[in-house]
Model the fold of this input.
Amino acid sequence: MTLTLETARPRTTERVLRRRLGPGRRHRFTFWIGPALLLAIWSIGSKAGFISPTVLTAPWDVAIAFKTQWTDHDLLGDILASLGRAGVGLAFGVLGGTVLAVVSGLSRLGEALIDGPIQIKRSVPTLALIPLFIAWFGIGQEMKLVTIALISMIPIYVNTHNGLRSIDGKYAELAETIGIGRPEFIRHVVLPGALPGFLLGMRFAVTSALLGLVVVEQYNATSGVGHMMTLAEEYGQTDVLVVGLVIYGLFGFLADTAVRLTERRVLGWRRTLEG
Done:
């Protein structure tokens, strides 16, 4: 009986520690708690007079400005234009980062040729290259897409490459033992093992793409949320500026939420194994 208790105690302690230190039970609407709390603080502060309208427009005034922009100034068209730029640039960035990471992560020659230049690029902020991109591509749509693609490519490459290089060597030994060929090993072991790194890179890439979008839409844009904010700045419309900031914030929050939900669904097998 004593032996049974002694062997059971470490397992019980391990379960308790895992319960305390683990992520805990996840609920469907937890993503919205933080933004809702922030909105409540903003509303209460504006209503009580702690937040001056000259500093930050009240939420209800922002809602009125949003309605005005929607009905009188084609806000929907601006939102779709911004989403189009961000989406196309992000797609090229994800594709380029993934291909480079796979080539570099699975080949010594590929790593020798690719990883060095990528690390050099990491030390040079993409936004600092905008004047050079303007000289190369002009000030139109091409410059904007290249900037967004490049700024989102780096986190995809770094995290996916790290995921590929972090595969436990025991799996390679097991593959050799049971006679699995290299293509099957890459397809069934390496690529699924690198998926968590890729999805983590996606979260950073989405944020980076939106950061690039905010900046490039200040350059000669004739549509988009940034164009709306530029006009609002010229006319001193603080409420419209806040509308643009809220829209950019919602872009980022919803995109990050989508990636996190995808990660939870795709990587459900990890929680099964850990449990």
DSSP finds twelve helices and no strands in the chain. The chain has one domain: 59-270. Confidence is low (pLDDT under 50) at residues 20-24. The radius of gyration is 24 Å.
